[in-house]
């Protein structure tokens, strides 16, 4: 009897998790909208090129990290790499890498996208120009999370 009691909750939790894909997507999408800046705030944000955004980190990484960590920024650049990565329990996420549109730096900026943003990521393509709003997460690998793609232009047009 004791064995059944321990196994039953585990089976129940697994069946709940396996059927919650749509609910999970709705939950994370609602969370994105709740925690992202509104349209008016985004419209008034300065748009940085990749080189402009990364310059303070090149000059003084400690100061730039304290200035930007947790802040929302709007960055425009050329998409150079889009990867789908495996997570835990069958989940996945995307990593999108952007370079400076004018090639003013050879450094890259990385964005992490959750699987609930699959349609937005799949609309991007290597070589396209995109403007992305994101929250600065960490400097070590130039990562921005909690993003929002504002617009993208295929092949820079």
Structural write-up:
InterPro entries: NA-bd_OB-fold, Protein_unknown_function_OB. This is Lipoprotein. It holds the Pfam family tRNA_anti-like. The chain is an alpha/beta fold. It has a single domain (about 20-155), classed as OB fold (Dihydrolipoamide Acetyltransferase, E2P). The chain is built from six helices and six strands; from the N terminus they run αααβααβββαββ. Residues about 1-30 and about 155 have low confidence and may be disordered.
Judging from the principal axes of the Cα atoms, what is the shape? Answer: globular
Percent of sequence in beta strands: 25-35%
- Tell me, rounded to a whole number, the average pLDDT: 73
Radius of gyration, CA atoms, in whole angstroms:
19 Å
What is the rounded distance between the termini?
67 Å
Structural class label: alpha/beta
Total number of beta strands? 6
Q: For this structure, what is the CATH class?
A: Mainly Beta
As for the CATH topology, it is OB fold (Dihydrolipoamide Acetyltransferase, E2P)
Low-confidence stretches: 1-28, 153-157
Strands in their spatial order, largest beta sheet: 2-3-4-6-5
Q: How many domains make up the 3D coordinates?
A: 1
Helix content: 25-40%
H-E string: HHHEHHEEEHEE
Highlighted features:
alpha/beta, 5-stranded mixed beta barrel, 34% strand, OB fold (Dihydrolipoamide Acetyltransferase, E2P), 6 helices
């Amino acid at each position: 009897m004791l064995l059944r009691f321990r196994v039953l909750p585990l089976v129940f939790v697994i069946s709940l998790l396996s059927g919650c894909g749509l609910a999970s997507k709705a939950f994370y999408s609602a969370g994105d909208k709740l925690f992202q800046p509104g349209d008016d705030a985004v419209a008034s944000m300065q748009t940085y090129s990749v080189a402009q955004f990364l310059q303070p980190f090149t000059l003084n990484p400690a100061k730039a990290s304290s200035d930007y960590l947790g802040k929302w920024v709007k960055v425009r650049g050329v998409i150079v790499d889009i990867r789908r990565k495996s997570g835990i329990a069958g989940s996945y996420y995307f990593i999108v890498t952007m370079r400076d549109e004018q090639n003013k730096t050879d450094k890259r900026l990385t964005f992490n996208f959750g699987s609930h943003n699959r349609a937005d990521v799949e609309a991007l393509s290597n070589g396209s120009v995109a403007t992305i709003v994101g929250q600065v997460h960490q400097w070590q690998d130039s990562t921005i999370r909690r993003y929002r793609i504002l617009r993208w232009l295929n092949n820079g047009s």
